Structures are given as C-alpha cells and as structure tokens.
Fold this protein.
Amino acid sequence: MNNSNQKELIARGEHAILGTYKRYDIVFSHGKGSYVYDTTGKKYLDCGTGIAVLAFGHGNEELASAIYEQAKKLTTVSNLFYTEPQIKLCEKIVSEMKQNNSEEDGRVFLSNSGAEANECIMKLARAYGQKSGRFEIITTINSFHGRTFAAISASGQDKLKVGFEPLLPGFKHVPFNDLEAMKNAITDKTVAIMIEGIQGEGGIIPATKEYLLGLQELAKSKDILIMIDAIQCGFYRTGRFQSYERILESKIDEECAFIPDAVSMAKGIGAGFPIGASWINGRLSGVLKPGSHGTTFGGNALSSAASLTAFNLIEKYSIKNNVRTVGSYLTKKLEELKRDNSSKIKEIRGLGLMLGIEFIPKVVRDEKYKDLPYASYVTKKCLDIGLLVIPAAPNTIRILPQLGFSKEEADEAISLLKSVLDDLDS
Ligand SMILES: *Cc1c(COP(=O)(O)O)cnc(C)c1O
C-alpha cells in the first residue's frame, strides 16, 4: 500500500473513530518479533509494544497457535462454571506470587483489562473497610490507574478527571516516594494505600526500597491494606514477576520482606490478548463473597489459555535472565547517550526493560507539536526514523521493548536514538 492509501485510511479513521486520542499519522498493518510495519511498508523497531503489552513481540507462533487451538475447543462458558485453563492460570499466578511469600495462598479474580483489575481491588478495600467504617484509599500524585470512574478518581492526575466531576469520593493523593506525606495523609477513615511499583504514565519512576518497606510498616500498624498496581511494571518487565521483588531484591530473601494485600495485573500477562487479574492475599480471600463481584468475559477459557501460554513461554525461553542482561546493557548504553548529550537528556530511569529517558525540553517549531508535551515531539522524531517509543509525562519517553529483546536490537535502538538526539536542538 502506498502513502496516499495510508492518508485515505487515516481520513476515514477520523470520521469513524471517536476522537478521544491524538493519534500519530501511521496505520500499522503487521509485525514480527521486535518489528512492526505500517501500511506503506515502512519498518519500525518496536520499543513500545502496545505500552508494555506484547511480552513476546509481534506474531509469536506459539502464542498464536495456543489461542487458535483453544478457540477451536472452547472459548467461554460463563463464570457459573469452571474451565481448566482458568483454574491453571489462577494456580500459576498464585504460585508466582508465592515465590517470596510464605503466607497462606492467595486467590485470583480474572477480568479483561487493567482498569477492571483495579476496580476489583478497590472494591475489596471498600468491602474490607465496611466493618470499621473506613473507605478512604490513598494513592500518589502522577499515578495512573485506568479510565473507569473509580480508576480516574484513584489516579493522581487532574487531566484525567477534568470534565467528569463529580468523581467517586474517598480518594486522596500524596507525593510518590514520600513516606512522611503518606503518614500525614492517613486518617481514621483510611482503609488502603494503592501505588504503582514503578510509575509508568507518570514518567518511569520506581518506588524506593525504603518507601515500600516503610509503607508496609505504616500500614500494618493501622490495619491498612497495601495494594500494588502492577499493570505496567509487572509480568517480568523488570526481570522478576513483580517490580517490588526486583526493587527489594537484596532484602527480599530475608523472609517476606514485602507482602502486599492485593496486586492488579493486566497488559503483559496476556502478551497481546486482553486480560486482567487481581491477586488477593489469602488472609483476605473471604472479603469478596459470592455475588459481590463478577464479569461475563473475565477469565474465559480463551484469554486464560493465552495468558497461561505467556507464563509458560517465560520459563521456556529464560526470559527473566534476558530481561536482566539486555536491560542492564541498554541502561548502560542509555547512560552513555546521556553523558554525550548532557544538554538534551536529563535522566535515565527504570529497571529491566521498563526504561525512561527524560529530556530537557526545548522550544518546538513544528506547528503540529509546538503546543504538545515535549515527549510527544521526541516520539514523533523517533517514529520518523523507524523507532517506536511511547511518551510519558511530560518530557519522558518510554522504552518498553518485548521481553525477548536481543542485544543486537538494543544496539539498533541506541543507534536510532543517537540520530534523533543529533537532530534535536541543544
Ligand atoms: C495501563 C494501566 C492501567 C489501565 O489499564 P487498562 O487495561 O488500559 O484499563 C492501570 N494502571 C496502570 C499502572 C497502567 O499502566
């Protein structure tokens, strides 16, 4: 397909698709591994993977055939019944969560998206607080928890909320990684604290060790639930199942250093197939009773089989090691880029293959991008030369490649970034 066809498709899209997104002028058509192609045939190195979704890149044959085989056999029967894929997937998530956690087994509620996974744990918190009359959930500034009413109410970003008031009551936001602020925000109505292990939309900001352990201590003394939104930072993106395990690595083997009460997951766990999951600590497994929560599609046999296959591929291809090796290689190369471009790059952040480059913003002359965040402009410059990255708040671009990303592909990403940097004003 040529460029005028792509332009025509975009014009049709503008008429048919509700305009809730400012989209880049690209129509993607297919992909393989770390590469994705648009309808003009242009090739891109995909360091965005649908925002940390495609854990094994594009067109993975094993995942595709597992989905195909399950689709022929059984797709859904409703949650009034059991299916083997759902049981196996929940067992797998429970066992992965147990690795560094000697507490009683957890339980899992399956859904279809991140926002839904958060809805479940926020309802858990409300239900848990009923007896003591507590309902307030404290989250952090610049957090992102999704787009449903509860999720925008929970998120610490005004731009998600403006125009939708009144929001759901009972949420409070405090600065991230600030234990003192959290301590001061707690009242006798507080029932839960919810944070991302690494803030994603907020600009790739990992929680510190001291913060995680401090929150846990604080919460324990007041019977407050600790809930982790692991939707973007989970599923081995940092080299361990959960980002807090990676953050606390040196401490975590000293027996249960950090045990959350609830963890929401989505994005990577389906490796491209839509699915969400809420893990709930065993001690709370009786809080949400029969009839208290539900879903039609959640946990269907098809999405469960896809996600189970994703978990199996992690083992089969030693993905955790790859994320560590290639992640630290990429980080080292990005640090070198920063050193050579100190007037353009402010900071490199992140863990494993969840990395952020914060730029020092400059005046943008390009009409279309001059009023948008600087990260949107840098993203456009990357796309122009065939590198797909994802912007985050407001001056950071995210590097979120597939978890099987190779060293050679990392070198290619660095060389593409180099030429973008050469092209940016200093
Ligand atoms: C993407 C994301 C969500 C929302 O997930 P959806 O699947 O879009 O509903 C929630 N929290 C975090 C941290 C996310 O990155």
Notes: The chain has a mean pLDDT of 96. The first strand starts at residue 28 and ends at 32.
